[in-house]
Amino acid sequence: MFRLVLTCVLTSVLCTAVADDSSLGGEALQNSVDQLRNAIGRWDVETEFIGEDGEVSRRVDGTYTFEWVVQDRVVSGRSEIPELQQAAGILFYVRESSEEIEMVSVGADGRLWIMTGPLGDETRTTREFDTRDGGKGQLRFTRFNISDDAFESRMDYTTDGGQTWAQGNHQQFKRAKPGQ
What we know:
Structural class: alpha+beta
CATH superfamily: Calycin beta-barrel core domain
Largest sheet: 10 strands, antiparallel, barrel
Radius of gyration: 18 Å
CATH class: Mainly Beta
Oligomer: single chain
Low-confidence stretches: 1-24
CATH topology: Lipocalin
Number of strands: 11
Strand order of the largest sheet: 1-2-3-4-5-6-7-9-10-11
Order of helices and strands: HHEEEEEEEEEEE
CATH architecture: Beta Barrel
Distance between the termini: 47 Å
């Protein structure tokens, strides 16, 4: 019985997810689906870490790779920064029921970052979290300067409930050339 119910649920989800573009409805939803579509592939990424003085304190190169799990709804990915011996798994998806686009990431430390924003928007924020010094923090990620083969991302952080934000990093994504 459980197997039958599970099969019915999965079939329902997959049939809904692979509907053609005409059934997507709404400009915000279409913009979010376009974000997922744009992400597919391999990206060369330069990350600049920004110090408290606003200056670049370190630059590192890495890669991000994204592929479909469920067409037009769910993307899986992997980021790697060899110089920092860092890798993370990523899940990027559209959640129509709550009108959100969300990305989750988890690395070797096991910390799960959940970044959520409204459908159609290029900005996602984390939930508030405890900082090392006993305070509260929150991260905000914004994608901008978007083209088919490049975009930029900025991570800002706040420790005062969003009254002020400081830049934590800046990333430049360039689509990797075929064969890389």
